[in-house]
């Protein structure tokens, strides 16, 4: 098996409760390499054109790639792939943060989830210990409250949590998935797919060292990236204002399509730029796994939000970008 992969794909059937490790040949890895390609492979192989996105026959793949876990900026994203409730076709959505490296650290290249649980459940992947656990106590709760509950349940150990919220539970077709507190898989309604499977969350803990063929070469690349970032100008925008800092650039390039793509950008796009509201709500930043940019902004609204504050809000000052 090539370095960078574990050679193991974890299969979970929520209907039967069956959990198994799948070993596929090296040719599979060399051809597909991870991410949405993994997920699309399983969809094409195990579903049909008639499969409904909200049926238990749909397949959710949470996949890493050959670079996941390498300590280089921007190479450790996690891809969630399934038939999309919005389009009926293949849908994939990505999130940064630590979920991808945590899956790889648990010993797997991907989690492939099929079926539908009889009751609201969550999946625990703790290395070789894999369990489908009752999630009834999580029903209807916000993503912040569920994050607190699950973190406390595992004694605040280092875990990563991918979850849908109440909208996903109700199968709202554009529902998102929240990865920990800072990253959102927001495309293609993957939260609704979780809801259709009675799957509230996936909790992963991985402590294995991730090996690569040329560790010294990867360290060299990481150093070069860090050295070159300051002169590029782009990371400064992201570090200071988060993703909203790029609104102006994207609008002026015609990349903020609105009104069903009839216009290239909203006329009031300058009001949406991160530079406008950063002074009022900015509260520092955090970053994805091994990333030197630090584009994830934290916020602390000037006017109190009328929601019950969880310990996650108090300790991390909720990130919204």
Model description:
By secondary structure, this protein is of the alpha+beta class. It has two domains: 9-205, Aldehyde ferredoxin oxidoreductase, N-terminal domain (Aldehyde Ferredoxin Oxidoreductase,  A, domain 1); 215-316, no CATH class. Helices cover 29% and strands 21% of the residues. The protein contains eleven helices and 14 strands. It has helices at residues 26-32, 35-46, 99-105, 143-153, 166-169, 190-196, 215-232, 234-241, 247-252, 274-281, 311-316, and strands at 9-13, 19-22, 60-63, 78-83, 90-95, 110-114, 121-126, 129-134, 160-163, 177-179, 183-185, 199-205, 282-286, 296-299. Strands 2-1-6-3-4-5 form a six-stranded mixed β-sheet, sandwiched between helices. Strand 4 (78-83) and strand 5 (90-95) form a beta hairpin. It is globular, with a radius of gyration of 20 Å. The two termini are 37 Å apart. The model is unreliable at 305-321 (pLDDT under 50).
Summarize the structure.
The chain is an alpha+beta fold and about 325 residues long.
Oligomer: single chain
Number of domains: 2
How far apart the termini lie comes to: 37 Å
How would you write the strand order of the largest sheet?
2-1-6-3-4-5
User: Would you tell me the structural class of the helices and strands?
Assistant: alpha+beta
Low-confidence region ranges = 305-321
The assigned CATH architecture of the largest domain is 4-Layer Sandwich
Number of strands: 14
At CATH level 3, the topology of the largest domain is Aldehyde Ferredoxin Oxidoreductase,  A, domain 1
Helix content: 25-40%
- Arithmetic mean pLDDT: 85
- Biggest β-sheet strands, sense, barrel: 6 strands, mixed
């Amino acid at each position: 098996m090539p370095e960078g992969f574990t050679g193991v794909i974890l299969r979970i059937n929520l209907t039967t409760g069956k959990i198994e490790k799948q070993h596929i040949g090296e040719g599979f890895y060399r051809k597909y390499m991870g991410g949405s390609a993994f997920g699309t492979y399983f969809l094409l192989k195990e579903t049909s054109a008639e499969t409904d996105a909200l049926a238990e026959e749909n397949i959710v793949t949470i996949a890493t790639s050959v670079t996941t876990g390498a300590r280089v900026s921007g190479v450790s994203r996690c891809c969630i792939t399934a038939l999309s409730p919005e389009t009926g076709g293949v849908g994939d959505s990505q999130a940064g943060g630590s979920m991808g490296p945590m899956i790889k650290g648990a010993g797997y290249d991907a989690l492939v989830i099929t079926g539908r649980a009889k009751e609201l459940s969550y999946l625990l992947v703790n290395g070789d210990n894999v369990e489908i656990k009752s999630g009834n106590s999580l029903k209807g709760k916000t993503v912040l409250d569920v994050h607190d509950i699950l973190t406390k349940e595992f004694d605040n150990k280092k875990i990563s949590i991918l979850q849908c919220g109440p909208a996903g539970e109700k199968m709202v077709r554009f529902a998102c998935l929240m990865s920990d507190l800072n990253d959102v898989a927001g495309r293609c309604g993957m939260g609704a797919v979780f809801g259709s499977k009675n799957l509230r969350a996936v909790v992963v803990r991985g402590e294995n060292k991730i090996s690569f063929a040329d560790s010294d070469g990867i360290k060299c690349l990481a150093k070069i990236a860090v050295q070159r970032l300051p002169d590029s100008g782009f990371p400064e925008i992201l570090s200071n204002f988060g993703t909203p800092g790029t609104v102006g650039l994207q609008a002026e390039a015609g990349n903020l399509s609105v009104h069903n793509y009839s216009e290239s950008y909203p006329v009031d796009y300058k009001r949406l730029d991160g530079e406008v509201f950063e002074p009022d709500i900015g509260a520092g930043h955090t970053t994805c796994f091994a990333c030197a940019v630090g584009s994830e902004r934290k916020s602390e609204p000037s006017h109190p939000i009328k929601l019950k504050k969880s310990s996650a809000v108090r300790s991390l000052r909720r990130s919204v970008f």
